[in-house]
From TrEMBL:
Subcellular location per the Swiss-Prot or TrEMBL entry: Periplasm
Residue intervals of the Solute-binding protein family domain: 68-429
Species this protein is from: Aliiroseovarius sediminilitoris
Signal sequence region: 1-23
One Pfam family hit: SBP_bac_5
SUPFAM superfamilies referenced in this protein's UniProt entry, alphabetically: Periplasmic binding protein-like II
Name of the protein this chain belongs to: Peptide/nickel transport system substrate-binding protein
Length: 518
């Protein structure tokens, strides 16, 4: 028996046993990985935000057509240029039984400002001022065009639950990156589900919260069992055999197979997550030379990767901002030209090349390990020898934070749906105080680019913002600040009759609380 068949059989047995044990309104979900922590502020990632939408609730959330809809905030109004007043819904209960008040929002805001990953998003915000139990003001240091965009990141936490000390004397509110903390293991949110069972890397069980505030939701799923299945073929096979009900992502190689299968639905959507590689200028002297960075960009065949590895299920990129964003510049096009790349290497004094290390995850982005292998092979054409290592995301993110390799893969979706967000986290000059450049493993720094980003964050005239952000993208392109590959499209597979198309969105945060299973 082959290794593949053994793993599939084991997964099928476990899923079948689980199916027999649970009621009909249980939905079995298989992602390529499970959340690395229950702490909503430990890591700024898609997995964290997917979890947050299940066990917490934001003040405001995105609709499928990228408009805002109220959640825990029932209304809001602009009081002055730097103050927006929010009114909370009354009668909202945390999983612990505590009631939500404006003090919980204030406490959560202060914690977000302490998070290494999230404080950059909130750099423009100065305070939450509590007006009364159900009212608070969100204040900025200057007029800011993205207040509601940022409010989608505020998932109020149960301040009483997270305040105090554990039995071993540790602060319950502390944020421990890739570590063990009270918040990483315990959760009390306002969301539609509570976490009733969790074994990292094996499964997470979510039970419907009996006192969930949103009685208008037609969601009727009582239990969700999330099982991580890293291998694409095994995950797809589990859906097609009926062992699971919902999977993500569906790999490009299996799109047609899922679309043609009886009893399952394929749901696809254009994506705005850019997949990139960063070049660490502090680890490799050659990366400080713009000609070497440009040579690497010229050596990488973006279109070939999308065509052959992604099977066309992606959009070739040459910048971070996708079409439709204010900063997108259609004049910036991919520059694949191996001979030009060789000439630039020679001009920079590196005709004979050099050796580097490269790291990438193997279960975070669609075909991430295959993409990394292809890029490593392409760089060999300009005499750059690559020592590539891929690993599961649970091991990858600590390595990424350590800047443990010379080139590292990072994908980014601007959850504020704004171009400035890409630069703030991926290419801004790293600054521990502000949180800018938190995911800039290349240590790229350009003060003019940062100035444009900062100016755009206080500019409310959309035409002027667009001009600033487009100029910013042009600087990054000319300096080859990073290697853009493609925008990753989204694909989910679902058992027919689950109405899954109603709960997915371009941000890839399915709203399972609203899922109606027929």
């Amino acid at each position: 028996m082959t290794k593949f068949v053994r793993s599939l059989t084991a997964a099928a047995v476990v899923a079948t046993m689980a199916s027999a044990a649970f009621a009909e309104n249980t939905v079995r979900v298989a992602y390529d990985a499970d959340p690395v922590s229950l702490d909503p502020h430990e890591q700024l990632s898609g997995g964290t935000l997917q979890l947050s939408h299940m066990v917490f609730d934001p003040l405001v959330r995105w609709t499928q057509d990228l408009q805002f809809e109220p959640r825990l905030a029932e209304s809001w109004e602009q009081i002055d240029d730097t103050t927006m007043r929010f009114k909370l819904k009354s009668g909202v209960k945390f999983h612990s039984g505590n009631m939500l008040t404006a003090k919980d929002v204030d406490w959560t805001f202060d914690r977000l400002k302490q998070s290494d990953d999230f404080k950059g998003i909130f750099a423009q915000f100065t305070d939450v001022e509590v007006i009364d139990d159900m009212t608070f003001d969100l204040k900025t240091s200057a007029p800011y065009p993205l207040v509601l965009h940022t409010a989608t990141y505020i998932f109020p936490m149960d301040s009483a639950f997270y305040t105090g000390e554990t039995d071993d004397g540790k602060d319950k509110s502390e944020i421990v990156k890739h570590g063990d903390s009270f918040a990483s293991r315990n959760v009390s949110g306002t969301g539609p589900y509570i976490v009733s069972e969790r074994e990292q890397g094996v499964k997470v069980v979510f039970d419907r919260f009996a006192d969930y505030w949103d009685t208008d939701s037609k969601g009727n799923v009582d239990k969700i069992v999330l099982t991580p299945i890293k291998e694409d073929p095994t995950r797809v096979a589990a859906l097609l055999s009926g062992d699971v009900d919902f999977i993500a992502p569906v790999p490009p190689t299996d799109l047609q197979r899922v679309a043609d299968a009886e009893g399952v639905d394929l749901i696809t959507m254009p994506g705005t997550r850019i997949i990139t590689f960063q070049m660490n200028q502090e680890r490799v002297e050659a990366f400080k030379d713009v000609r070497v960075r440009q040579a690497i960009d010229y050596a990488v065949n973006n279109a070939g990767i999308v065509d052959r590895i992604m099977r066309g299920f992606g959009t070739v990129g040459a910048q971070a901002s996708p079409a439709g964003y204010l900063g997108h510049d259609p004049a910036l096009t991919p520059r694949f030209d191996v001979e030009k790349a060789k000439a630039l290497m020679a001009e920079a004094g590196y005709a004979d090349g050099f050796s580097i290390t490269m790291m990438a995850p193997n279960n975070r982005y669609v075909n991430d390990d295959k993409i990394a292998q292809a890029v490593a092979s392409m760089l060999s054409q300009i005499n750059i020898k690559v020592d590539l290592q891929t690993m599961p995301k649970a091991q990858y993110w600590p390595k990424f934070d350590e800047r443990a390799a010379d080139m590292m893969m990072i994908g980014w979706h601007a959850d504020t749906e704004d171009s400035a967000n890409f630069h703030q986290f991926l290419t801004a000059c790293p600054d521990e105080t502000t949180g800018n450049g938190q995911y800039n493993s290349g240590n790229y720094c350009n003060e003019e680019a940062d100035a444009l980003m900062n100016a755009s964050n206080t500019e409310t005239d959309q035409a002027k913002r667009a001009e600033m952000l487009t100029k910013l993208e042009g600087i990054l392109y000319e300096e080859a600040a990073f290697i853009p590959l493609h925008w990753q499209n989204l694909a989910w597979g679902s058992k027919s009759g689950m109405n899954s198309g109603e709960i997915v969105n371009a941000l890839n945060f399915p709203y399972f609380g609203d899922l109606v299973v027929e």
